[in-house]
């Protein structure tokens, strides 16, 4: 009787451990599926900011913010492109990977700046 109790206890213990690890692994796999990228989060915040601007002063402030942000992102994109042109004495594959990464970052910033400018053009038409 005592032996069967120990076997049942061990079986139950390992079942709980296995269940816990299974849930932990599932949580680890599905967490990225529910996450939001920084670019998407920024876009949603800007959308909320634009939609909440009601008075002319608020709209002017949002327009100034969007204009300044678009200019800053375009400037940073140009800086990244210039950095990609520079050689740092790296091996060829490392230099190519660095250039591609910098170009991707610059393209992303350009898309964001384009989005800011498109939002800026739509802002005055939202008068109620």
Detailed description of the structure:
The chain is mostly helical and 128 residues long. The protein folds into two domains: 1-35; 37-126. The chain is 82% helix and 0% strand. It is built from four helices and no strands. The chain has helices at residues 2-30, 38-52, 56-85, 92-122. The longest helix has 31 residues, at 92-122. The relative contact order is 0.10. The mean pLDDT is 83. Residues 107-128 are annotated as: Disordered. Residues 107-120 have a biased composition (Basic and acidic residues).
Topology:
Blueprint: H1 2-30, H2 38-52, H3 56-85, H4 92-122
Helix pairs in contact: 3-4
Region (Disordered): 107-128
Biased composition (Basic and acidic residues): 107-120
Index terms:
128 residues; flat; single chain; 2 domains; mainly alpha; 0% strand
